[in-house]
Design a protein that fits this description.
By secondary structure, this protein is mainly α. It is built from eight helices and no strands. About 25% of the residues are buried.
Length: about 160
């Protein structure tokens, strides 16, 4: 398969934006090895499918969506616990300690996949609702409702841990 100059330039952008792709993959996979594996798979898919891309302006969201889908597929095959540093965005009451078995990362891991994704993309990647909607191929309202349900579920779990 021969690539034209524009396609080669777009692929070069993967290297230039490698930290952003790594951060996205790491936020979803929870460890370096799986994040790097996801990026490798995404890169192969991008190279394979770049001929289907209709506009150079769409390359960044298109490639990120591919990465999100690769991470989803990998997560489904082998769910992983999230590292603690990925849940630091949640405020903890300093007067209470959660049992080792009941950590916030476990609560996030136990969320339904669609809720877990929006939590990670919004709070770890600090993405806007519109960007999350684009990566997940859902309406922005769906992102907001999933995020609301996820934060409510986390809040309920935490209340139970502190008062139960």
């Amino acid at each position: 398969m021969g690539l034209n100059d524009q396609q080669l330039q777009l692929l070069d952008g993967l290297q230039k934006d490698r930290h952003m792709y790594y951060r996205l993959a790491y936020s979803m996979m929870g460890n370096e090895a799986d994040a790097l594996d996801a990026i490798s798979q995404m890169t192969l898919l991008v190279v394979e499918k770049i001929g289907t891309l209709r506009s150079a302006d769409a390359f960044s969201p298109w490639s990120k969506k591919i990465l999100v889908n690769v991470c989803r597929d990998m997560w489904r095959r082998t769910p992983k616990a999230l590292p603690l540093d990925e849940t630091d965005f949640l405020v903890k009451d300093p007067g209470h300690e959660l049992d080792e078995d009941m950590t916030i990362r476990q609560y996030i891991r136990d969320l339904p996949e669609k809720q877990r994704e929006v939590i990670l993309l919004r709070y770890y990647m600090d993405l806007e609702y519109q960007d999350i909607a684009q990566y997940l191929a859902v309406p922005e309202g769906t992102v907001k409702s999933r995020l609301n349900r996820a934060t409510e579920a986390l809040r309920d779990h935490m209340k139970g841990a502190y008062h139960g």
